[in-house]
Design goal:
nine-stranded mixed beta sheet; Neuraminidase; alpha+beta; 13 helices; Rossmann fold; four-stranded antiparallel beta sheet; 19% helix
């Protein structure tokens, strides 16, 4: 891996400003790919294999909505199981050899209901269609074919109670009543509810345990939320659990944890630079297989020689692509394998372990030509306080960080904010690069995967040092000569939308244009309109974001809607009317404040969307409008 670093934030700005503009528009016009190719639904995706290994299933468009299809392996004919036309199916899986379960919400309200349908398309039934209720999947109970454990906030909108559900009849039984602070439940390999994770005193996390379902849950470990154990699954004796833990350390590691005593038993794997985030196991062989973490790409540490051998074989056959195993049959001799890269949505394959035979099933988006796509480069730069900020730089096809000069740039801070950008296919980034823009993504402080210290440096720093990290990335690009200082835009969604708005408050002359997609504009009203099931986390949010009472002065200074008088940058705002996370009032406020001052602002609202546009035609509308907006302000 070659990482491009900024050595200092001094210097050579005057030199680069004397360089002529690179005229790339004629080149890009010749190779411009239709917008719809980036944002239309995949031809086929989400492949899974049935437990008996006889069928595979996938999602594909039906009347422009993603629906579920099933096909017998070795046959050409597929059966469409669902006929949803108002909303894409959000996710699905095989419950047993015959029945498939799937989730769907209405208009983006995120109140997901669970549905069931047989593999022949019959016996379709909504299992949890309750008004204003959200369904969580706790355990699919693979060894109990007709049952699963779900969570519902039916009794109290703020908390989820666990239920045992019959997936054929819809009959359910509550397994425990959430006292109001439980945020997660965990079962053992027999499907018994044994562990609960709670929030106590608003900011402390607590692990509760019981030996049997007849017993009461007992607290065994209490820590501040900054330090925690994340149980992944029970060991194969149903005694201890495999978990990720950052107790007494900066980075999360893989441990064996005794939930009865609340103590770590053994450390199995640690990485000194990155949090270990995922642990996997073989259900058939009952062995731990791998742990994974993300540096600039996903990396794995193998505990199991057999799984290491499988990945080695796949890597040799699929050189140049990232590889993920997205499903296996119960016998674990057939796997569904997915590839991807920064320039490709990849393909699905069927891998026969015994024969070491890989059969291509389908290209996800065969209309995408990888040769026309842009490379995404890992980068690092140093913020003004010395913090090293990792990220990614994508440049128009054919350019490198050494050859790119004076480009129009779109700065794209991620949402979350406690999430991170990753290397891989991103249709937004490739679309912008194809239109002649360089795109900078940065994992500003608070981004996940880099340890506790990096995370905690973001607390109460919305619009402050977190914003500086973004601004300093722009200065880096200018100082490196990559960016034309007069043609830089900022675009982000959710927290990235907030950072977009705050960017044109604190640095009003830095950006030539801004695009805010479902972004927060007022920290006071944002805290008042969070979903009800976030309410138990409110004290934690006060510590991470700020308290609207005790931090009111800071909130006023860092709420873009309250500082709209400082804005002068042309702005495009997009919002889903049913957004449960960032209420439409957040966008209404900023648009109204700017329009009263006569500032140019374009506003797009979709009445059948929530936190982001999922319907294909709405995606087309948004990105078409964004392209026109950026073209007008950065390319003319």
């Amino acid at each position: 891996m070659k990482t491009y670093k900024l050595l200092t934030l001094t210097g050579a700005l005057a030199l680069f400003l004397t360089l002529g503009l690179m005229n790339i528009r004629p080149i890009m016009a010749q190779n411009q790919i239709p917008l719809e190719d980036f944002f239309k639904n995949p031809e086929k995706s989400g492949y899974q294999i049935s437990p008996d290994g006889k069928y595979f299933s996938y999602q594909a468009p039906y009347e422009n909505r993603m629906n579920i299809f099933v096909q017998q392996i070795g046959k050409d004919k597929a059966t469409r199981l669902t006929s949803e036309t108002d909303r894409d199916i959000a996710g699905y899986y095989w419950a047993n050899d015959n029945r498939i379960l799937y989730l769907k919400d209405n208009g983006g309200d995120e109140n997901f209901a669970l549905y069931g349908v047989d593999k022949n398309g019959k016996n379709q039934k909504c299992l949890t269609c309750f008004e204003g209720v959200r369904t969580q999947i706790i355990d699919d109970l693979k060894d109990i074919p007709d049952e699963m454990i779900i969570g519902l906030n039916k009794r109290n909108p703020q908390v989820f109670d666990p239920y045992r559900l019959n997936i054929n009849s819809g009959e359910m039984k509550m397994l425990a009543e959430n006292p109001g602070n439980i945020q997660g439940w965990m079962t053992d390999h027999e499907g018994k509810l044994r562990i609960a994770m709670a929030i106590v005193d608003g900011v402390n996390t607590q692990l509760l345990y019981r030996d049997t379902e007849e017993e009461e849950f007992t607290p065994t470990l209490t820590t501040n939320f900054k330090e925690s154990v994340g149980p992944q699954f029970f060991d194969f004796d149903n005694k201890n659990v495999y978990a990720t833990s950052n107790l007494g350390r900066d980075k999360s590691v893989v441990v064996v944890f005794d939930p009865k005593t609340g103590k770590e038993v053994k450390t199995l794997y640690e990485n000194d630079k990155y949090d270990v985030s995922d642990v996997s196991y073989s259900r058939k062989r009952k062995v731990l297989t791998a742990a994974s973490y993300v540096s600039w790409k996903r990396e794995r540490h193998f505990f199991d020689e057999q799984m290491a051998g499988i990945f080695k074989n796949l890597s040799n056959k699929l050189e140049g692509y990232e590889i993920a195993i997205s499903g296996a049959n119960d016998a674990e001799d057939m796997y569904i394998v997915r590839t991807y890269s920064d320039k490709s949505l990849g393909a699905y394959y069927l891998y026969d372990v015994g024969k070491d035979a890989l059969t291509k099933i389908h290209e996800v988006s065969p209309w995408i030509d990888e040769k026309q796509m842009a490379n995404t480069h890992p980068i690092e730069y140093t913020a003004r306080d010395g913090m090293v900020i990792p990220g990614y730089l994508t440049l128009p096809n054919g350019l490198t960080p050494e050859t790119a000069k004076n480009l129009p740039i779109v700065v794209n801070p991620h949402g979350g904010p406690w999430a991170r950008d990753n290397w891989g296919w991103n249709p937004e980034i490739q679309f912008l690069a194809n239109r002649g823009f360089g795109v900078l993504q940065m994992n500003f402080r608070g981004s996940t995967g880099y340890g506790r210290e990096f995370m905690e440096k973001s607390f109460k720093q919305w619009g402050l040092t977190m914003q500086n990290d973004i601004t300093d990335g722009v200065y880096w690009l200018i100082n490196e000569g990559i960016a034309d200082k007069n043609r830089v835009a900022i675009y982000g969604a959710s927290y990235g939308g907030y950072a977009t708005l705050q960017g044109i408050v604190v640095t009003p002359t830095l950006y030539a244009a801004a695009v805010d997609y479902v972004g927060v504009s007022n920290l006071f009203t944002f805290m008042q309109t969070i979903p009800p099931y976030w309410k138990p986390l409110l004290d934690m949010m006060y510590e991470m974001v700020g308290n609207p009472v005790t931090d009111s002065v800071q909130f006023k200074a860092t709420s873009p809607a309250l500082n709209a008088h400082k804005m002068m940058t042309p702005l495009f705002v997009a919002q889903g009317a049913n957004d449960p996370r960032v209420n439409i009032d957040e966008s209404d406020q900023i648009v109204e404040a700017l329009r009263q001052r006569g500032i140019e602002v374009e506003y797009m609202v979709k009445d059948n969307e929530g936190h982001g546009f999922h319907n294909e035609e709405n995606r087309f509308d948004f990105y078409r409008a964004m392209e026109k907006f950026l073209e007008a302000h950065l390319m003319d």
